[in-house]
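Worked example 3 (structure in, sequence out).
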């Protein structure tokens, strides 16, 4: 018997397969596996760090506990080193040759008394009660190198003789020539009997150059507060053939360092090598008297400069044209100089503007032809009554501070041709007026 199913008007419904549940379970398995791998990696890293920590602790000899950090430890405080056989914890310093002899230690019961040292009758002080009694109180041993250096410096100051005969002292140096290197070695040893304005002495140093080329320029270090500085510095000049030695002249300049102004020139030494016999590898010790640097300037003068001035009252401008200079003094034995000019505009005695020219190399008669414009204050009714112009002619130097050859001051407070030139410029505005002026010290 067959059963008839009545048709229906709704949509067809088909059963859904169970494959979606299988995909969801697979996804969860992948996530759990990845998490397990990450945890395993962290565990391996933690084990490696622990083993590394244990190995470092073993290398350090077990001095650090497991709960102490291995790195970034704060620095330990430095402790003094004990000297063997010494009661104090500071290292024993060598005795100073200028310090008085320390008293003899007290004799112990187990050790025999020390024998008194043999002394010369001419140097033994008289009037002492016992040969073991110290003649002067002993000085405490300095506890640092700075105190020891300061103590030695003070003793050196007392022992230095003062220069009272007008001499500038002596320069001690050595010469040595090396054939295999074609090199000339100049050793600046010391200076003796230098003058100084300060009671403690100058701060001297030595500048050296080889003439006539003026290419090699060196200088020593500065020795503080002494009239007898000791340098012991060697300077090696390469590329000098044996036949060139006779044409070389050593030019030493002794200067006193000044922190706040221009270094003061004490004197100079000129030593030609033409009359010296330098043997290879053998040092020759020489001593030369330091000569004053300003004698040649006093004998030949400081030269002249040609300056042109133009005053423009409406614009309150002063135009200065530095044309040239002539008959400048020789700054070295070659008869050459490297001059340039500095100009300062002064208002009521105070410098308010500064200009300078280019350096003219190796000439005593430089030609500048440079123009400069200064703005004068108190415009529009500006005048030149409270204005002056200061000119400084200097010799350029690559190593040390430039040396002043001469100076000139133009203004109402000037004298001679400088004042006459300034009055003429005031009386004839908007005109270029040039004149020669002699340089002064």
């Amino acid at each position: 018997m067959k059963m008839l199913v009545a048709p229906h008007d709704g949509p067809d419904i088909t059963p859904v397969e169970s494959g979606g549940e299988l995909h969801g379970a697979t996804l969860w398995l992948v996530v759990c596996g990845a998490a397990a791998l990450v945890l395993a990696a962290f565990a391996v890293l933690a084990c490696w760090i622990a083993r590394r920590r244990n190995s470092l602790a073993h290398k350090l000899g077990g001095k650090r506990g497991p709960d102490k950090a291995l790195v970034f430890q704060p620095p330990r405080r430095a402790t003094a080193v004990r000297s063997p056989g010494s009661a104090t914890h500071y290292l024993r310093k060598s005795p100073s040759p200028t310090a008085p002899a320390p008293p003899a230690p007290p004799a112990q019961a187990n050790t025999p008394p020390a024998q008194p040292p043999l002394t010369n009758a001419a140097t033994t002080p008289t009037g002492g009660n016992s040969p073991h009694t110290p003649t002067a109180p002993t000085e405490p041993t300095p506890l640092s190198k700075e105190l020891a250096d300061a103590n030695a410096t003070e003793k050196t100051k007392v022992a230095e003789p003062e220069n009272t005969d007008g001499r500038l002292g002596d320069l001690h140096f050595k010469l040595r020539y090396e054939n295999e290197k074609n090199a000339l070695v100049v050793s600046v040893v010391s200076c003796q009997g230098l003058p100084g304005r300060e009671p403690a002495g100058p701060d001297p140093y030595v500048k050296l150059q080889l003439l006539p080329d003026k290419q090699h320029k060196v200088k020593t270090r500065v020795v503080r507060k002494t009239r007898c500085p000791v340098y012991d510095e060697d300077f090696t000049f390469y590329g000098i053939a044996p036949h060139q030695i006779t044409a070389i002249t050593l030019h030493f300049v002794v200067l006193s360092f000044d922190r706040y102004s221009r270094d003061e020139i004490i004197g100079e030494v000129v030593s030609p090598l033409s009359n010296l016999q330098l043997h290879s590898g053998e040092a020759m010790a020489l001593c030369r008297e330091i000569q004053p640097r300003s004698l040649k300037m006093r004998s030949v003068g400081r030269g002249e400069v040609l300056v042109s001035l133009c005053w423009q009252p409406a614009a309150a401008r002063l135009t200065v044209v530095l044309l040239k200079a002539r008959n400048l003094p020789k700054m070295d034995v070659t008869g050459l100089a490297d001059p340039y000019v500095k100009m300062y505009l002064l208002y009521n005695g105070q410098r308010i503007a500064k200009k300078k020219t280019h350096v003219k190399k190796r000439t005593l008669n430089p030609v500048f032809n440079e123009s400069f414009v200064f703005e004068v204050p108190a415009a529009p009714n500006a005048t030149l009554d409270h204005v002056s112009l200061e000119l400084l002619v200097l010799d350029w130097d690559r190593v040390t501070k430039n040396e002043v050859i001469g100076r000139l001051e133009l203004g109402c407070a000037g004298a001679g041709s400088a004042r006459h030139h300034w009055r003429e410029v005031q009386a004839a505005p908007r005109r270029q007026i040039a004149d020669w002026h002699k340089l002064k010290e």
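Notes: The helical segments are 19-59, 145-159, 295-300, 417-427. DSSP finds four helices and 16 strands in the chain.
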